Every structure is written in C-alpha cells, then in structure tokens.
C-alpha cells in the first residue's frame, strides 16, 4: 500500500491510501487520522484493516500433524513419497516433512484437502478415516479460520508388524 500526501482546501495534509481504490482520510483537531463518515474516527475494526492470506503449505502442515495424531495412522504419503521422505529424514540436518501425503486447495474462505495415509494392520479403516477427517477439519478450521469443505482420504497401504522386523534385519546385514 502506498501513502500519498497532498493538501486539502484548508492547507492541511490529507493522506490517501492507494491500492486499487483510493480512500481519503482527514485529520481531526488533535491530528488523528479520521475516515470520512466514521464516528469518532475509529473507522473499521482493526481486524478488518487488511487482508490475511494463508499459504497452501501452512494448511498442509496443519493437516499432516492432525492426521498423524490419530491412533491407527502409521504414515502419510504413497509408497514412493514415503521412501524418498525416509531417505531425506535420515540425512543429517534433515527434518521430517509434515506435509507429505497432503494436498490442499485454499480459497479465500474455504479449503479442500486430499490425504494419502497408511494404516496399522488390524484397525478398522472406516473408523480411522473418520477420525482423521474429524481431527483434520477441527485443526484446520480452528487454526486458520477457513471452512473445510471436504477431506478426501486415500488409504494406500497397510503397515504389517512384520514390516518393521524385515527392515531392521535388512539394515543390519
């Protein structure tokens, strides 16, 4: 936003805030900026004085963290994404990618999410998916104020207890 200063008919400064539409603001007797027609010079509420944008990556991280909190979720992401992520996580200084397996579309007031998850063997998949959906919606709406219109969940794999033993013995060889 740019502020341009000019003089009004009385010689006092008038500031114009330009961003698409110009709004003229005048100063009252005490020198405080007053929006025309605003009672007491208060103008819009502070929360309404500007725009907040939330990046897709922010919503992805929130959703990823919320999904991982649900019991029965082993991991997020498809096979290749999990493999590459596991390698990246082992690199010194590497951090786990909380957004892996999460895709979002964020609008001005709404968001839609797609999650790829791996569940533990033996857990009821519809129940886990329902809990993931509820937890993700609650977390995203609470933290961002966006309305979550849909959360699509794709279960890509089931983690078997034997998988841990095989991967541990493969690393020892």
TrEMBL record:
Location of the region described as Disordered in the Swiss-Prot/TrEMBL record: 1-49
Source organism phylogeny: Bacteria, Bacillati, Actinomycetota, Actinomycetes, Kitasatosporales
Pfam families from the UniProt entry: Asp23
Polar residues bias locations: 1-10
InterPro entries (UniProt xref): Asp23
Biased composition (Basic and acidic residues): 20-29
Protein name: Asp23/Gls24 family envelope stress response protein
Organism of this sequence: Streptomyces alkaliterrae
Family to which this protein belongs: Belongs to the asp23 family.
